[in-house]
Amino acid sequence: MALRNLWRRKTRTALTLLGIAMGVAAVVALSVFAEGMASGMERVFAGSTADLTVSEKDAYLLFFSTVDDTLGDELRQLPNVKSVAGRMVTMVPMPGVPYFILAGEDPRGFAIQHYRLIAGGPLTGRKQVLIGKTTAENFDKQVGEAFILNDAIFRVAGIYETGEALEDGGAVISLSDMQRLFDRRGKVSYFAVSVKDPRRADELSTEIENRWPELTATRSGEISQQAELFDIYRSFGLFIGVFAAIVGGLGMMNTMLMSVIERTREIGVLRAVGWSRWRVIGLILGEALTLALLGGALGILLGLGLLQLVSQVPAVASLLQGTLTPQILLQAIAIAVVLGMVGGLYPAWRAAQLQPIEAMRYESGASGGTPRWMPQLPGDGALRDLWRRPARTALTLAGIGLAVGFVVALMGLAEGVIVSFSQMLGAGQMDLMGVQAGISDMELSEIDDRVAAQLRVQPEVKAVSRVLFGFPQTSDAPFLMLFGLDPGEDYVRHYRIREGRAIQRSGEMLLGRIAADNMRKTVGDEVQLGVRRFEVVGIYENGAAYEDTGGMLWLRDAQDLLNKRHKASFLGVRLRNPNNIEVAAQQLEARFPQIKLHTTASLRERTQDLQTLYAILGTLITLTLVIGGVVMTNAVLMSVFERTQEIGVLRALGWSRWRIIRMVVGESLALSVLSTLVGGGIGLGLSHALTLVPLFGDLLAPAYTPPMLLQVAALALGLGALGGLYPAWRAAGLRPIEALRYE
């Protein structure tokens, strides 16, 4: 019976199925993407046959770990150690592939055996590279051809296949070439250690950590700070997908409510012939579950199709291979079932409350009047028509409002990142921000102190400030961004100290206001960072969340603590003539190819992290608006169905087709205006809720600009116009006689 009832309104059912399917497809696609990112990174770092991984204790990701390669000889002397291989892993930007994994391996070490050659041979000399099978296909490269990495030319020695998507979409060079290419001589990211007796691996791990307190030794697959961060990635993907599914679920609730209203007399007859309330509830819930399961199945197919399509794009292909887990499919099905239950509850309850006699006397058509206080918008009484079914209108507003609110929150978050960088550049202590060239992630940037010294003597340059940042391990806070600055350089004046004083010597630190409050620290307290303790001599408040949630050390202390001696993450460059900033940036980049110089205007265009952020943002906004558009079309179409006889009367009284279209589109636009207002409130609330997330919330401070808000309003109005086109065309196509006979 459920399928038969749903089939009675094919168009409405199809639109509802599409809305649910898009939401479930979002769950599948985003969960797979997040799983691909998380599991791919995990497998990259656990890809060798190592029993233990020895890395810097304070590094929250192995990408950011730095260890002296001389430590390898000492590790080899330990009794239970069989082999030790130093490894270096980073991400470099490549054409069409923003996050390209590049590994540096010892050609004679055991870890390189993980890369199974399918063509060519091993690394035997300088400037040679092994490329993954996916890389060879994406870049159309063969053995013997040239391959450019970070502006350096390498020769393809071989092509490998490991079965791990991220690795097969990356490349491998010798460890010595890697150290030279990124100016990290004498350093590795971590050591892969093979043990003689695996049963004593834990004993060896304890021995290493006791002997070198600044290091950590973990077993393959062991839960660590890195694994916890990857779990956050997985949860974030699922969260966004569920949000999209809820929008579709509200559309389904709207459909079921309309079905109940439309079949009021039928339900009255069923109650009159003896159907109990529970049987009526079972009927409506059965239809809702059927609709949800069909939509869920269609959504899984759509999600798989979307993944197959996106997997052809080199930029994300390596993140989507082999990551569709049974858990993701079960999550999608479970979400569909929950949507069916929740979406059918209110309509089922409403149907069960109908009294048989009143239901049998029910006349089709809308009910309710318009309150006197309600203004009238253009469109022949659009708000009046919406008010006729307040429950349906409220559900539609909730669904579309959630979609608009989600867009507002995402755009505010992205704009907040831009504002943070702009505040850094616009603080008055730098005109240009220099980062290491050839690095995808700015957090991986490392610039030698010698480059800063050479920049200072350039005729265009007035001053250069070095800034080092990282994330040291501390028991006082689970996540602390640390900045290292030289008190004698310009950028330190950017810090506005509210309590205490500035740093004067080694062993002292400043805390941001938010960090001090979260850690419950005041001037005079101590903070444990790694194996050292630092005295808090002052508390600053700059107004930028990413700074106020962190702390500041003397540059040399930060370099020692983060094991990045003579290194800076970025350089703040002040020019003698800031009016000539673009020309000066080009000239300095030509002289110093190892760095890339950003202005405030070039941050969006030239920063790979921000480009990727905006690409993901655009995809999510498009997906959300498509789902919202389906909900809008469904709601307006139901209004047209319900008012078929009324439209027939209007046509019989002489209303033209264009006037009917204007009326329906006007109702759709009125719904959009109200949804924009509701969505704006939801977006602001969601943005505020994100700032309350533990660990990262303070870094997610949104920013809103008038152009951005106008863009959201334009998108919402466009959504209303498009959502009303098909219902308006259908209404205008009704023949008066047939419409008047409609039941």
Kindly describe this structure.
By secondary structure, the protein is of the alpha+beta class. The chain folds into 4 domains: 1-46 and 229-362, no CATH class; 57-213, no CATH class; 385-415 and 603-743, no CATH class; 427-599, no CATH class. The protein has 26 helices and 24 strands. Strands 1, 3, 4, 5, 6, 7, 8, 9, 11 and 12 form a 10-stranded mixed β-sheet that branches. Strands 13, 15, 16, 17, 18, 19, 20, 21, 23 and 24 form a 10-stranded mixed β-sheet that branches. Strands 2-10 form a two-stranded antiparallel sheet. Strand 7 (146-149) and strand 8 form a beta hairpin. Helix 2 packs antiparallel against helix 12 and helix 8 (225-262) packs parallel to helix 12 (326-353). The longest helix is centred in the N-terminal third of the chain and has 38 residues, at 225-262. The chain is elongated. The two termini are 20 Å apart. The relative contact order is 0.12.
Write a brief caption for the model.
The chain is α+β, with helices and mostly antiparallel strands. The longest helix has 38 residues, at 225-262. The relative contact order is 0.12.
Sum up the structure in keywords:
26 helices, 10-stranded mixed beta sheet, 743 residues, elongated
State the total count of DSSP E strands: 24
Shape: elongated
Taking all Cα atoms into account, the compactness measure Rg is 31 Å
What does the average pLDDT come to?
A: 77
Contiguous runs where pLDDT drops below 50 for at least 5 residues? 364-380
* Number of separate helices: 26
| Whole-number tally of structural domains | 4
Structural class: alpha+beta
Distance between the termini: 20 Å
Helix content: 40-55%
Q: What percent strand? A: 15-25%
